[in-house]
Design brief:
This protein has 228 residues and is mainly alpha-helical. It has 2 domains: 5-67, Winged helix-like DNA-binding domain superfamily/Winged helix DNA-binding domain (Arc Repressor Mutant, subunit A, Orthogonal Bundle); 72-214, GntR ligand-binding domain-like (Four Helix Bundle (Hemerythrin (Met), subunit A), Up-down Bundle), CATH 1.20.120. It has helices at residues 8-19, 31-38, 42-54, 72-96, 99-112, 118-135, 139-151, 153-159, 163-181, 186-213, and strands spanning 28-29, 58-61, 64-67. Strands 1-3-2 form a 3-stranded antiparallel β-sheet. The longest helix has 28 residues, at 186-213. The protein is elongated. The two termini are 36 Å apart. The relative contact order is 0.14.
């Protein structure tokens, strides 16, 4: 869903507030309160909310809105789906991508290492996986991975908030790409390990965040899910 250019800054600000947990999962939102907070009129506020709804970051709650609780079952399902898609995509890259294509991705990955902020790092990680999918030559892989990355944007943000986490992600991406450059199918297993371990780190982080916010009466995860 496209929004007018004049609302782009409003969208960026509201999305950032949700991703960083400034707006906490489960928090109720009203168009009037958002107008006051962001100094915007109701029409652009509503347009942004509708776009955020398509990304799974907010949802309607009667006549108002609510920041979507983090759904653990969805995270697990997306990780499983992503693993299946990326394994197939990497096989396609090994078979079809030229050496120059892979070299270009190495250069892009090297530039990602300098990502200074969480937002830059989040974008860099997503771009790496999308570029890999592009090199597979199958546009359906690209569409699928792009959809998964959008749905996981908030939780991926939480996972890359420390320099150590960003460096770990970069090293894992580099190792996968090295094996692809060697036309070594073990890249497929490395990708699986990367996705699973990223998911495990994320769930561990969410457990800590859940305990931190429990006293506020807000649930950062879906109440129907149990997080150990």
């Amino acid at each position: 869903m496209n929004i007018p250019s004049q609302t782009a800054g409003l969208y960026d600000n509201m999305r950032s507030a949700i991703l960083s947990l400034e707006l906490i999962p489960g928090e109720r939102l009203t168009e009037r309160s958002l107008e006051t907070t962001y100094g915007a009129s109701r029409t652009p506020i509503r347009a942004v909310l509708m776009r955020l709804e398509t990304e799974g970051l907010v949802k309607r709650d009667g006549r108002g809105w609510i920041v979507s609780p983090i759904d653990l079952s969805e995270i697990s399902a997306l990780a499983e789906f992503r693993e299946a898609i990326e394994r197939a995509a990497i096989r396609g890259v090994i078979l079809r991508a030229s050496d120059s294509d892979i070299d270009s991705l190495f250069e892009l990955l090297e530039s990602f290492r300098e990502a200074a902020s969480e937002e830059d790092s989040l974008r860099a990680g997503g771009d790496f996986h999308l570029e890999l999918a592009q090199l597979s030559g199958n546009r359906f892989f690209v569409d699928s991975i792009q959809g998964v990355m959008t749905r996981l944007a908030r939780t991926r943000w939480l996972e890359v908030r420390t320099q150590e986490a960003r460096e770990q992600a970069w090293l894992e991406h580099h190792e996968i790409l090295e094996k692809i450059g060697e036309r070594d199918v073990t890249a497929v297993e490395l990708a699986s390990t990367h996705i699973r371990e990223t998911n495990e780190r994320l769930l561990d982080h969410l457990a800590k965040e859940r305990r931190r916010f429990r006293g506020s009466g807000l649930s950062i995860v879906d109440d129907s899910q149990i997080l150990a």
